[in-house]
Amino acid sequence: MADKDKVVTARAVVQQCLYAKLQVKPSSEESPAEWVEIHRGMVIYVCFFKGAQEEIIPKMVSTLLNVRLCETDEGKHVSVLDLPGDVLIIPQATLGGKVKGRGVQYHANVSKEQGLDLYTQLVAQCQQQLSGSATWAEAATVLHHGTYGNRQVLQLDTNGPYTHLVEF
What we know:
- Helix content is 21%, strand content 33%.
- It is an alpha+beta fold.
- The strands form 4 sheets. A 5-stranded mixed beta sheet has the order 10-7-4-1-12, covered by helices on one side. It has a 3-stranded antiparallel beta sheet with strand order 3-2-11, with no helix packed on it.
- The chain is globular.
């Protein structure tokens, strides 16, 4: 059961994947849309709530990159670092939504400016930790991330809906 006294300042949803493709820049009259893609690894959707501070970022990075979510060919669950696998981080403000009547409200989310700052720090610290892992770096794996404030157009292939909610 959830701890009713715990104040949630960030929420992440993690999903193992075999392939994911994310639009990071929509098309315009001057240029086509830009996409990033990852192969076997993990997609992380993230949202920050009012009260979130930069002190939460190291805990988030450690938890998300070390959770044993990825399935090996033998069926064993390991972290994305141990797999090693690609990582795609997607800002997802809708994770902070609350249904009210027939609509959804996002009053608990941080401001866009603070959300962008926290998201940028999260991506940078994930890249730092991943790059510091010899196993991960030697495997030529990648970290890609979505563009904060843009609609996140995503294509995802998975070997099962192995999706988990993590709150901080």
